[in-house]
Automatic annotation (TrEMBL):
PANTHER family: AMINO ACID IMPORT ATP-BINDING PROTEIN, GLUTAMATE_ASPARTATE IMPORT ATP-BINDING PROTEIN GLTL. It is a peripheral membrane protein. This is Amino acid ABC transporter ATP-binding protein. It comes from Gordonia liuliyuniae. InterPro entries: AAA+_ATPase, ABC_ATPase_HisP-typ, ABC_transporter-like_ATP-bd, ABC_transporter-like_CS, MetN_ABC_transporter-like, P-loop_NTPase.
Amino acid sequence: MISMRNVQKHFGDLHVLRDIDIEIPRGQVVVVLGPSGSGKSTLCRTINRLEPIDSGEIRIEGQLLPEEGRDLARLRSDVGMVFQSFNLFAHKTILQNVTIGPIKVRKQSKADAEKQSLGLLERVGVEAQKDKYPAQLSGGQQQRVAIARSLAMGPKVLLFDEPTSALDPEMVSEVLDVMVSLAKEGMTMVVVTHEMGFARKAADRILFMADGAIVEDTDPESFFTAPESDRARDFLSKIL
Ligand code: ADP
Ligand code: MG
C-alpha cells in the first residue's frame, strides 16, 4: 500500500530522513516511535506530500506520488492525516466540517455527503454534536470529528501524528478507542504516538526512528521486550 525507497530529505544541513526503505502492506498498523526531533512527523508529512523529498521514491498502491496539481488533491483524499492540533474549521458546524471534503473534492451531492457524514459521526460517537461549532466540543470530541472528517474522503491510508498529545489525559482513551476499532476493521494506518499501551495493543509493527533513520523495524513484542539497539533501549528506559 505504501512503499518508500531510498528516501532522503534535508532541511538545509540537517539530514532529516536518511535512506528510508519501507513497504507497508494493506491493513497493516504501523506505530512510529522515537525521540523528539528524530524525523517522525517529517516521515508522515512526506507520505501525503506535505513535504517534498530530495531523492528516492514514494508510492501509494504502486503509484508514484504526484508533484502537483489535480493528482495531488486526489492523493490527499487517498492518504488522510490526523494532526495533534485538530485543525477543524472554526466557523463551520461539526457536520459541515465532515461534509465539506466529500462535497468539494469528491463532488458528492449535499444529501449524500450528509448521510454518509452522519454515519461517520455516529461511528466516532459524536453525532449528537452535529450542529455545534468546534469550540463547543471537548478536545477528545474534536479529535474524533477530525478522524470522521478524514474517513469521509474514503482514504486508503490514514496517518496520525501524535493525535492524543494535545488532549487532557481523561480524553486520550476515547480517541485511542476509535483508532483501535479502525485498526480492527483493517484500515492501513501509520501512527506516531507516545501511547505505549496503544502501540502494544494495536500495532502490527513498530518502526523506531533516531536521527532521521529507521533504527528498528520489528513487531511490538520484540521491540518492547528485546530492543536491539542502544538507542531504543535508552528510549524505552525513559518512557516505561
Ligand atoms: P519528530 O516528529 O520526530 O519530533 P520532526 O520530523 O518534526 O521530528 O523534525 C525532525 C528534525 O527536522 C528536527 O530537528 C526539526 O527541528 C527539523 N525540522 C522539522 N521541520 C522543519 C522545517 N520545516 N524546517 C527546518 N527544520 C525542520
Ligand atoms: Mg513530531
